[in-house]
Amino acid sequence: MVYERHGGLTKNEAAEIVDAIFMTVKSSLGDGRPVRIMNFGTFEVTSRPGRDGVNPSNGEKLFIPPHKGLSFRPARLLKSLVSSETRKKDH
Q1: Could you please report the per-residue DSSP string of 18-77?
Q2: Which pairing describes strands 41-48 and 67-74: parallel, antiparallel, or unpaired?
Q3: N or C, where is the chain less crowded by C-beta within 10 Å?
Q4: What is the pTM of this model?
């Protein structure tokens, strides 16, 4: 898409730009900083507490230790776009 929208770029240059963006996102999240993308949403690293769980294959109880997770909160615009697409498919 980046290549198609910007006629002055080669496919390799467009791929490098996209890779650079994703590396920046990964680096920020790795440092614990949230990443906000306008009109898309926000990615955040969250701390998940330890909890009791069950192994689904054998029913054995186990403890799941505390760990970090990733959450995503969509922007209002993205929510409304998804919602309107869902309504179109339902009719």
Answers
A1: HHHHHHHHHHHHHTT--EEETTTEEEEEEEE--EEEE-TTT--EEEE--EEEEEEEE-HH
A2: antiparallel
A3: C
A4: 0.70
